[in-house]
Amino acid sequence: MTKPDTPTLDQVAGPADLRHMSDRDLGRVATELRSEVVAAVSQTGGHLGSSLGVVELTVAIHAVFDTPRDKLIWDVGHQCYPHKILTGRRDRMHTLRQGGGLSGFTKRSESEFDPFGAAHSSTSISAALGFTVGRDMGQPTGDAIAVIGDGSISAGMAYEAMNNAGSEGRRLFVILNDNEMSIAPPVGAMSSYLSGLSDLTRKGPFGGLMAMAEGMEQLAPKPVREGARRAREMVTGLESKGTFFEELGFDYIGPIDGHDMGQLLSVLRAAKTRATGPVLIHCCTVKGKGYAPAEGSADKYHGVAKFDVDTGVQAKAKANAPSYTGVFGDALTEAASRDPSIVAVTAAMPSGTGVDRMAKRFPARVFDVGIAEQHGVTFAAGMAASGLKPFCAIYSTFLQRGYDQVVHDVALQGLPVRFAIDRAGLVGADGATHAGAFDIGYLGALPGMVVMAAADEAELVHMVETAAAHDSGPIAFRYPRGNGTGVTLPERGEVLEIGKGRMIREGTGDVALLSLGTHLSECEAAATMLEAEGISATIADARFAKPLDLDLIGQLALTHTALFTVEQGAQGGFGAMVLQAMAGEGMLDHGCRVRTLCLPDRFIDQAALAEMYRDAGVDAEGIVQTVLAALQQDRKVVTLHS
Ligand SMILES: Cc1ncc(C[n+]2csc(CCOP(=O)(O)OP(=O)(O)O)c2C)c(N)n1
Ligand SMILES: CC(=O)[C@@H](O)[C@H](O)COP(=O)(O)O
Ligand SMILES: [Mg+2]
């Protein structure tokens, strides 16, 4: 890769250097910064499109505001690569999203320029408002600036924050980065409203000037504003209403061209000088700006693998098995073709969850609610209450955002919502914020909830069929990010008996490995390693974390020296529920030793997935070491291989 020529950017060791530069040089920094982002991400992969869309904005904010004393909070944080380069992390960008390297999102522990961590969307305004209270109560902090995207502002939490900010009336800057894109094309009435507002600017230079004039006038005293508005109405012949944001108590500036450094600098400087309360600056940007392959792609290169800068062609590893997401999407579509009452709900991630495959055949039965997991869950609950069979497809980590809705609107009412929980377990490069670590525990605790975990892609097909057939209450099935094992897929899934596990291989009674989910493969590898140590291992696939197969567990406990549960989830999940059941049933009274292998009580930062599970101690070697320790082999605990 040829290193871009960045003579002006090279003068920037930190944001303070920007504040001594001419506006012209700031424009040069932005141009060079964009090339730097493209070059860096071409080597690491990551969230390219959103970062390219905020290059000018990032330079302008750091040039105008006194970061890190002023707190710049990026919503989601996936667009923070230009920010990281300008705030002293340029030399570490080659470690992005890798073990021991830079996080792909903002992270407090990584830099003083990251005042608030992110990755889950729509939190920035709440956090920024919190900082303004700290400032006003004497904490050593300056202004707070939240940069939130048009997708992220569709989440309820953003409105909760604006509602509060508007009544608090504290000086606060919210910059709406409106690129008319989420991961998928935007949905929702707010998106249409924003398009209406930004039409003026997107129409070209005249529109931009008008918008800027309008924007600047927002900061003038009320009488002047009224006069300007009347003048504008005369000129345009259009009634000029206040914006939604002004109705909430914000001064609204814009829409402005988020790539025009001159506009950005003058609006930010004016806003900083004059704002006395909450201000929303509406910036129109382009996701993937300045890099043709990104701008020209449907997803604007939202998340990319390493790529060739000249061609934009991504280096995607060839998969030798279908992705779990794809298997789910196809199985759901097949089930939907047989049952017209099946519908699907996604929260702004149709392709990430695979429901886009169903949407291709049944567009009227797939609903993208935007980034609105809370609404999505209860929306599905209403569908279920009406008699439909909703599949609510949400990543494990993002379902956390709608948990009370799962409890209060689904489980408490026993409504048959089907939860397709993708990205269950650790996820690799997205790191701790995206780990699907907690769903077994947080769902298993709910009365009436059925919780399944697929051991491979064939099992996933069966679980989709089982969920479709399960009408007596809520049911969830979890599966990991990535590709399957290559096992043959059934033409059509079979309905599994609820609460029944399956025996995979019978040993001679030394140890039993009770697996939940796709770590069945690690259990099989561990069994082979144990055999080499003269230890026979029985393997069973629990299939269900709830209800548990007590007959299977009791049988294993009675006939084995030791029982080990293995799961891709945090403590308080499958192993805990097995132990609690065994205790209740007296299965612990006969001397069977029990160990639960689950994720450790700490967050695990991004790394290669296998490395993360090794670190967690739940890979094959971790299982073997735990077995040997539990059997208290008097020989030294061997390390089977480095
Ligand atoms: C609560 C939550 N749900 C879903 C996601 C997945 N996600 C990450 S970025 C994104 C789209 C964000 O769109 P926008 O705010 O417009 O930012 P852009 O990518 O356009 O810069 C989504 C849905 C998330 N990070 N958090
Ligand atoms: C930033 C964000 O939250 C999403 O883009 C997420 O990174 C997608 O994860 P997958 O790559 O697993 O679909
Ligand atoms: Mg967007």
UniProtKB/TrEMBL annotation:
Gene behind the chain: dxs1
GO biological-process terms attached to the record: terpenoid biosynthetic process; thiamine biosynthetic process
SMART domains named in the record: Transket_pyr (SM00861)
Cofactors required: thiamine diphosphate; Mg(2+)
Annotated catalysed reactions: D-glyceraldehyde 3-phosphate + pyruvate + H(+) = 1-deoxy-D-xylulose 5-phosphate + CO2
Protein name: 1-deoxy-D-xylulose-5-phosphate synthase
Residue span of region Disordered: 1-23
Phylogenetic lineage: Bacteria, Pseudomonadati, Pseudomonadota, Alphaproteobacteria, Rhodobacterales
CC cofactor note: Binds 1 thiamine pyrophosphate per subunit. Binds 1 Mg(2+) ion per subunit.
Quaternary structure (record): Homodimer.
Superkingdom of the organism of origin: Bacteria
UniProt source species: Roseobacter cerasinus
Function recorded in the entry: Catalyzes the acyloin condensation reaction between C atoms 2 and 3 of pyruvate and glyceraldehyde 3-phosphate to yield 1-deoxy-D-xylulose-5-phosphate (DXP).
Similarity section: Belongs to the transketolase family. DXPS subfamily.
Record keywords: Isoprene biosynthesis, Magnesium, Metal-binding, Thiamine biosynthesis, Thiamine pyrophosphate, Transferase
